[in-house]
Write a structure and sequence with these properties.
Helix content is 48%, strand content 15%. With 466 residues, it is of the alpha/beta class. It has 2 domains: 211 residues, Rossmann fold (3-Layer(aba) Sandwich); 236 residues, Rossmann fold (3-Layer(aba) Sandwich), CATH 3.40.50. The strands form 2 sheets. It has a 7-stranded parallel sheet with strand order 3-4-2-5-6-1-7. A 6-stranded parallel sheet has the order 8-13-12-9-11-10, sandwiched between helices. Helix 1 crosses helix 2, helix 3 packs across helix 16 and helix 12 runs antiparallel to helix 13.
Length: 466
């Protein structure tokens, strides 16, 4: 029995998944973040459990969450986390009502073992993890065999249409044709030429296999989300340091936009990374150079205000070094916090999350890629993004750790953006990236990938924006 009261839209989601499983085709549950995709997938796993073993593949950070949720809401299922020794023995001993939970990292390692089993139901959670067809992770996912394939992801398209093609290669192989044919029919016309007719044809083709509902459509009772950009002004020393790095990058990359995109892309991205670090703190570029950091000072002001008003906040950065600097400040001030990055062991992650949710810690410092998906952190009502990531979908996923089911208070999201720098250009790109996904899922205009010349254009902008 399923021990959760599903909302009406979740019941419809379960029914949709069940219909697809009867028809023998795969489906992508692409509901907005925080709408209970795990719950709907779990309901389907329970419904299909008498017919065989289920497999859930998820990011490392949420494997224990899957185990806990199954025990709570579907206790007749038996969750088994794959790990430790005797893995082959554990897999061969699985039976009906068992659900094997595997991280994407372990899927790569045990590709052969997991590929020999014909699973009754396969769930790829946060399926954007296999968006890149060239990765070992994608190859391992494609090797899985199953009667019904389900993906859950709030972001089925993050950067370009090639990602969508790869997701459908797992779900319903052959539906979108070969990659070459897909690029010819859809990707190039849509991304390069904004072809509305090609976009409509693709939308019609994939619509039966993707179900997406947004918070605005189904969750009137969810508290409001307010997003605020805090513009940070560098001081004279910090701005001089940033400008010297920008000038050095320009000199190093002279002529880099004249064809030969592959190598040039890597060289330009390396320089962009240095500039993005410099926007945060000089120590992230040159560890012995301690200049006043406008961003750190802004964070200190925000943190003290939040503490004075008894708020709790999630603090995200893509740079672990940036979190280390923030951590130093919190320790010096005697401010209680939790911490999570890619190196945090699974058991410690769960311990930190549970502690924060039960009231231990005013701030939770989280590296964007390690804790941006799958976590429930509704004890926080503020989210602070210390540095903008290239793709807004990744930031939105992170913000929705707080703005989701169970949140009773309005949520405020702060984005710290340094004026007149590469960060402002990244934020401008966010709108274009959102359009790419919205066009196929909801409606809007498309945007393509950035060429070497366009990337170089980001560096050419001086500090004053002239």
């Amino acid at each position: 029995t399923f021990q959760a009261d599903l909302r009406e839209y979740q019941i419809k989601g379960f029914q949709w998944l069940h219909r697809l499983s009867v028809w023998g085709v795969g489906g992508c549950l692409a509901d907005d973040m925080g709408l209970g995709k795990t719950l709907q997938a779990m309901a389907l796993l329970l419904h299909r459990a008498p017919d065989g073993v289920g497999l859930v593949v998820a990011p490392t950070s949420v494997c224990t969450n899957w185990e806990a949720e199954i025990k709570r809401f579907a206790p007749t299922l038996n969750p088994v986390i794959l790990g430790g020794a005797n893995r082959a023995e554990r897999v061969s001993g699985l039976k009906g009502f068992d659900v094997l939970i595997v991280s994407y990292a372990l899927l790569q390692i045990e590709e052969e073992l997991l590929g020999t089993v014909v699973w009754n139901t396969i769930v790829l959670d946060e399926a954007q993890a296999i968006k890149n067809r060239m990765t070992k992770r994608s190859r391992a996912a494609m090797a899985l065999q199953g009667h019904f394939r389900l993906m859950t992801t709030g972001t089925p398209i993050e950067n370009h249409l090639g990602e969508l093609w790869n997701l459908f290669r797992f779900l319903n192989p052959g539906l979108l044709g070969s990659l070459e044919r897909f690029n010819e029919r859809f990707a190039i016309p849509i991304e390069r030429y904004r072809d509305r007719e090609a976009s409509q044809r693709l939308k019609t083709l994939i619509r039966p296999f993707i179900l997406r509902r947004t918070k605005n459509q189904v969750l009137q009772e969810l508290p409001p989300l307010t997003e605020i950009v805090l513009h940070v002004e560098m001081g004279s020393e910090e701005s001089a340091f940033y400008e010297s790095l920008r000038q050095r990058a320009m000199a190093a990359l002279e002529g880099a936009d004249d064809g030969g995109d592959g190598q040039n892309h890597l060289a330009i991205l390396a320089e962009l990374m240095t500039l993005r670090r410099a926007c945060c703190n000089s120590r992230l570029v040159q560890s012995d150079l301690v200049l006043p950091s406008a961003k750190l000072e802004t964070f200190k002001d925000v943190a003290r205000t939040l503490l004075d008003n008894r708020h709790k906040a999630l603090v995200f950065s893509q740079f672990v070094g940036h979190l280390t600097i923030i951590r130093e400040f919190l320790v010096a001030e005697g401010i209680s916090f939790q911490y999570l990055d890619g190196s945090t062991p699974v058991a410690k992650r769960k311990e930190s999350i549970d502690a924060f949710q039960s009231g231990v810690g005013d701030f939770f410092l989280i590296s964007l890629k390690a804790g941006g998906v799958g976590l429930n952190l509704t004890a926080a009502d503020y989210v602070i993004h210390m540095d903008p990531w290239w793709n807004p979908a990744v930031e939105d996923q992170a913000s929705n750790r707080a703005h989701r089911f169970g949140q009773m208070r309005p949520v405020t999201v702060y984005r710290l953006v340094t004026r007149g720098t590469i960060e402002e250009k990244i934020v401008e790109l966010h709108a274009q990236k959102r359009d790419l996904a919205d066009d196929l899922l909801e409606g809007g205009d498309m945007s393509g990938r950035l060429s070497a010349a366009e990337l170089l254009g980001l560096i050419r902008m001086p500090l004053n924006g002239a």
